[in-house]
Specification:
heterodimer; A: about 400 residues; alpha/beta; nine-stranded mixed β-sheet; 16 helices; globular; B: about 350 residues; mainly alpha; MetI-like fold; two-stranded antiparallel sheet; two-stranded antiparallel ribbon
Chain lengths: ~400, ~350
């Protein structure tokens, strides 16, 4: 009866790692929640299920197709999902379509019961639209041993980073640097980091016209071009997972990488550089400037068209995002709650954000600018055209897309 | 057959075709002819974003906010735009600019290469270029290799055949995303193929670093993936080759090549046509290797543009326009084959 053991093991694995906390949810009905699929969200989903009892059904769907499913159900007459987990990028469209239910009344009602902290509230104007629980940001990863061997200091600016790359290359490390240039979206994300840190912006807020044909923008793009010289020629095909492997295999000596990937560097099952990787804030584009990175949050939203009860749904969410969840799972992610204790793997994220990295912009113009940049700036990096030309192409693509979405007049 | 019973017989297939083929297609056309968005207005807003340890940051910006109706739902705009989406998707404007732009003509060759460079700088046309390259690059090899495999397996001993058929159709069994990944991983830095080439003393070679090699790898993958399909159909076809003409040819002293050329291949011709039609349709919709290799600067496809527009621009209407362009492209490519089949049918009657 091997099958039985497998089922038992699976059931055990699915149990929340927290001991069953007391669920204070009042009311009854059915609560359906949809989210992406990763460790922290799985943990939260399991914590939500603790609230199940007679008359209260809690169901969580974790899927990598969450984005399109959320968009479709929130646009329908009545949404089968009473809440969804979103991030900076995915809240944009839902908010722009006016589909989110402001949560001010529920936050006021339950502020004390669930100890809702102010920094968890995502506001658009006066409306609280989401309850955030974790943050993530890209920052600098480097090989401590190699930096020590070659007498290098951790770079504070991209000029210093390029100088370090030159030294390492001269010392025989063929491709010292790595970053996710491969997927159009990720490449544009690297660029947006540099553009914003360099004082540029994606669009003019007063008119929605694109703003990436400026000297700051060209300069930022040229930094990406200079970095490419120190990257593997295959980099135009590597996404952040590919860069993670490069670091783990010891192919590169430094990289810009998502903060939440840090613990995987010390996982001996997949990494050959256990204990050798150091983490630092993302470098700035100029002396004293903010780190060239943006920070991202993950949180829960409730739609206007839910078929369940917003009050019960909100309580279930807040139960799962309680201080107890953070205390018991401190090392799972970088929690926003104030009882979170930073670890060696998250300190660099904290420092990047405290250093002034802006939040990734949450509006439809930015999404469109991001996608048109992604499709065009690679022409400059691979040497097909000049930086100014590829930015001009991107601006043209942005204008066309923004007109179609009614953001720009014809 | 009476008209009524004929209609009754065909009714189930007509109804299911209408439901499963015509309706979705009409839906896509309908989407492509419209534009939709939620009306927005620019409002000055202060957005608060969380930090941690009780800190937060205020950001004040003019941001677009949805215009809400009396029920608090966003006001949807849905307007008919005719062919606008398709014209935008095909980037007719960009093409027009290039074609009407003044340029110095020094040599025909220079002129053509300059024109090619400018046209392939336009997203849609560059995607179309590789889509066509992939389609025409894979089709002949898929037919040739499929036929070769079929002939080989046909001659193998009874005992080996089962295993050979299974091994030959493996590439078709594996999901394209997974097999694309497997091929992609072969060519990364320090991966099997790169290390092998280095170990053989040819130095370091970066397959994913330029257009020519990356395109070659993707086309080779396409052949490897689709050849089993041609093989399995041709292998079945080989079992139906009549023995009499073959034996007659042998008595007349025809060589093995002559028997293949003048007896077997003519017999398989309808099958080869079917494989070509289906493979051209498949190849024109190439998507998985483009997604997995992630290097759309070197190799892009029309199908990938549909996906990109839908998932990163959130524009279902323009994505529908790309889908229509794909259908139009497939139809244009299939015209010669369809005309040929039609004539064939007509002469047989």
């Amino acid at each position: 009866m091997k099958f039985k053991y497998i089922v038992a093991a699976a059931a055990l694995a699915a149990l929340p790692s927290t001991a069953l906390a007391e669920c204070k949810v009042e009311g009854s009905g059915e609560v359906n929640v949809i989210s992406n699929f990763f460790e922290t969200l799985e943990l939260i989903a399991n914590t939500m299920k603790e609230c199940e009892r007679d008359g209260l059904v809690v169901d969580a769907k974790l899927t990598t197709e969450h984005r399109s499913e959320t968009e479709q159900s929130f646009a329908a007459g009545s949404s089968p999902f009473d809440a969804a987990a979103v991030a900076n990028s995915s809240i944009t469209l839902l908010q722009a379509r006016g589909q989110l239910r402001p949560l001010n009344d529920l936050v006021d009602k339950y502020r004390d019961t669930y100890d809702i902290e102010d920094q968890m509230l995502i506001r658009f104007g006066d409306d609280i639209m989401a309850i955030a629980f974790m943050v993530n940001a890209q920052h600098f990863y480097y090989r401590k041993d190699l930096f020590e061997e070659h007498g290098l200091a951790v770079p504070k600016t991209y000029d210093e980073l390029l100088a370090a790359a030159k030294t390492l290359k001269a010392a025989g490390i063929e491709h010292p640097y790595g970053a996710a240039f491969g997927n159009s979206w990720e490449l544009a994300n690297e660029y947006v980091n540099l553009l914003l840190a360099n004082g540029g912006q994606l669009f003019d807020p007063a008119t929605s016209e694109p703003a990436f044909e400026t000297p700051e923008a060209v300069e930022a793009l040229e930094i990406l071009g200079a970095l490419f010289e120190y990257m593997s020629p295959n980099s135009m095909s590597l996404d952040f997972g590919g860069v993670k492997r490069q670091l783990q295999q010891g192919d590169i000596a430094m990289a810009i990488q998502w903060g939440d990937q840090a613990p995987t560097m010390d996982n001996a099952d997949e990494s050959t550089v256990v204990g050798k990787i150091g983490y630092a804030p993302a470098p700035a584009t100029r002396e004293g400037g903010p780190p060239a990175s943006t920070f991202w949050w993950d949180g829960y939203v409730i739609p206007k068209n839910l078929d369940g009860d917003p009050d019960v749904t909100f309580q279930v969410i807040m139960h799962a995002l309680g201080a107890e969840t953070v205390a018991k799972n401190n090392d799972t992610t970088l929690w926003i709650r104030s009882n979170y204790q930073p670890t060696q793997y998250t300190a660099a994220i904290t420092e990047t954000v405290m250093g002034g990295a802006p939040p990734y912009p949450m509006n439809p113009q930015s999404s469109l600018a991001h996608s048109s940049l992604g499709e065009n700036i690679s022409d400059f990096i691979t040497g097909k055209e000049s930086a100014a030309q590829s930015l001009a192409d991107a601006a043209k693509a942005y204008r066309a897309a923004a007109r179609e979405q009614g953001l720009l007049a014809n | 057959m009476k008209r009524k019973s004929f209609l009754l017989f065909v009714a189930p297939s007509v109804v299911s075709m209408l439901l499963l083929i015509a309706m979705p297609l009409a839906g896509v056309v309908y989407l492509a002819l419209h534009q939709s968005y939620v009306k927005t207005e620019l409002v000055e807003l202060t957005t608060e974003v969380p930090l941690f340890g009780g800190l937060k940051r205020q950001v004040t910006r003019t941001v677009p906010q949805p215009v809400l109706d009396e029920n608090g739902r966003g006001v949807k705009v849905w307007k008919f735009v005719g062919a606008d989406n398709i014209v935008q998707a095909a980037e007719v404007e960009g093409l027009d600019e290039i074609l009407s732009g003044a340029r110095e003509v020094t040599s025909l060759r220079g002129f053509i290469s300059e024109l090619h460079r400018e046209i392939t700088n336009v997203d849609f046309w560059s995607a179309l270029e590789f889509t066509l390259l992939y389609t025409f690059g894979t089709t002949p090899f898929v037919l040739l290799i499929g036929l070769g495999l079929a002939l080989g397996v046909d001659r193998a001993s009874e005992r080996l055949r089962g295993t050979m058929v299974f091994v030959s159709i493996l590439p078709m069994i594996v999901t394209p995303v997974v097999s694309s990944l497997a091929v992609y991983w072969l060519f990364l830095d320090g991966a099997v193929i790169a290390s092998l080439i280095e170990a053989l003393g040819f130095g370091r070679f970066y397959f994913l670093a330029d257009q020519l090699t990356i395109r070659t790898v993707i086309v080779a993958y396409g052949i490897w993936w689709a050849a089993p399909f041609a093989f399995i159909i041709l292998y079945a076809g080989l079992q139906t080759v009549p023995r009499d003409p073959l034996e007659a040819a042998m008595i007349d002293g025809a060589s093995a090549w002559q028997r293949l050329r003048y007896v077997v291949i003519p017999h398989l011709m309808p099958l080869l046509a079917v494989i070509t039609v289906i493979h051209v349709m498949d190849a024109y919709r190439v998507f998985e290797p483009i997604l997995v290799f992630g290097a759309s600067v070197f190799a892009n496809s029309v199908q990938y543009l549909t996906y990109y527009t839908l998932s990163y621009e959130d524009n279902a209407n323009k994505a529908a326009a790309y889908a229509i362009l794909t259908v139009i492209g497939v139809v244009i490519l299939l015209i010669p084959v369809l005309v040929h089949t039609y004539r064939d049918q007509a002469t047989r009657r």
